[in-house]
From TrEMBL:
UniProt-recorded name of the protein: LysM peptidoglycan-binding domain-containing protein
Keyword set includes Repeat: no
Taxonomic source organism: Pseudoduganella dura
Signal found in the keyword field: yes
Signal sequence interval, chain numbering: 1-27
Keywords (A to Z) from UniProt: Signal
PROSITE patterns for this protein: LYSM
Classification via Gene3D superfamilies: LysM domain (3.10.350.10)
Pfam families (alphabetical): LysM
Domain LysM stretches: 40-89
UniProt cross-references to InterPro entries, sorted A to Z: Bact_Kbp, LysM, LysM_dom_sf
Length: 364
């Protein structure tokens, strides 16, 4: 395969992206470069992810929308890429193209925009990120925002005065069901505080299982009858219910957020203290802060504040020999689920372990 020299690639990028389609405020400020050894083409295979494919061609995988020439509407409603299709590196235009091997004697002779298959839409499409790493977080609430706790239905009694409930057991629930019939049970855990403001932005939720409405409350009472349809852990009186709203696996294109985001890591999951690649974390910013599914953030360790022991006597007379070291970039975060003030992200690359309190910012 042909490769451009590093100098050639830089000259090409400088020429192309001076007029590239802007996809967001963040993308406009993102410097995108192809890899010096970027291939002429890549045949999409099962097991590929959009992130991996983008990383084959680009120094920064989240630059994909720019080199594909996508706008914000296309990112919000993405097209699909399937195994067997070919991604061409159109070196003249500085863009990536989607085509087919059939009838293509030379790279780039067919220059098609991403298109939707009308049959089996999305079924075999290449996902944006590894789906297995995030599936539990799409349907099970591990964080409950403060306003979701108000007036949540709760278990008030059990059939036969059982202490704990298991599958197929009966539970009696009080609260407004708001027309829903399928619920998840959870037990509130410790509050999650913003690492900067110390304000409570949510509460950890221990997922317990699922319940289905068997009989709605009769007139004159507000007690509903439920059956436990699945139990991950034992549940009982006092545990709260949230309506089941599974979030489908989405194939959104990685992209910088539309606005500048400066967030902190709230919590780490999978039972670890230090997070690495493919671990899930939550951050203290959500849709009200400009995040959407597919947003990419850079992760940093917060620079320590240290004493400048080498300062001269005149500096010490100022009474402030303390200096803050720069924040150090340690990884990349892909946002895959957003709430009002909180989001879940998957760590895509990391050079050092991520900890609670680390910074997540719009890519530079």
């Amino acid at each position: 395969m042909k490769n451009f020299s590093t100098v050639g690639v830089r000259l090409l990028i400088a020429a192309v992206f001076s007029g590239a389609t802007a996809v967001s405020a963040g993308a406009q400020n993102t410097r995108c470069e192809f890899r010096p050894n970027a291939p002429d083409q890549h045949t999409v295979a099962r097991g590929d992810t959009l992130w991996d494919i983008a990383g084959t061609f680009l120094q920064k995988p989240w630059c994909w929308p720019q080199v594909w020439g996508m706008n914000r509407a296309e990112i919000a409603d993405p097209h699909w890429i399937y195994p067997g299709q070919v991604i061409w590196f159109d070196r003249v235009a500085g863009r990536l193209r989607l085509g087919s091997k059939l009838g293509n004697a030379e790279p780039g002779t067919v220059k098609l925009a991403p298109r939707v298959r009308t049959e089996g839409l999305g079924k075999d499409a290449v996902p944006a990120i590894p789906p297995g790493a995030i599936e539990p977080f799409l349907s099970q609430p591990l964080i409950v925002e403060a306003d979701e706790l108000k007036h949540a239905p709760r278990i008030v009694a059990t059939a036969g005065n059982r202490v704990f409930l298991g599958k197929d057991d009966k539970a009696y629930v009080r609260g407004d069901l708001k027309g829903a019939t399928s619920f998840q049970a959870f037990r509130p855990g410790k509050p999650l505080r913003d690492p900067v403001t110390r304000a409570v932005v949510g509460q950890e939720a221990h997922y317990l299982g699922t319940l289905a409405l068997q009989k709605e409350a009769a007139p004159g009472t507000d007690v509903h009858t439920f059956i436990v349809t699945g139990a991950k852990e034992e549940m009982g009186v006092g545990d709260q219910l949230m309506r089941t709203e599974p979030v489908p696996m989405q194939n959104y294109v990685p992209h910088p957020p539309a606005a500048q985001v400066d967030a902190r890591v709230l919590a780490i999951y999978d039972g670890v203290v230090h997070a690495g690649q493919n671990h899930v974390v939550s951050i203290n910013r959500g849709k009200l802060d400009g995040l959407d599914v597919g947003s990419v953030l850079q992760l940093y360790h917060v620079g320590q504040t240290v004493t400048d022991k080498s300062a001269d006597k005149g500096w010490h007379n100022l009474g402030n020999p303390q200096v803050k070291l720069p924040d150090e970039q340690v990884g990349t975060l892909f946002i895959f689920r957003v709430f009002s003030h909180v989001s879940y992200g998957l760590i895509m690359q990391v050079t050092e372990p991520v900890v609670v309190g680390d910074v997540a910012r719009t890519p530079e």
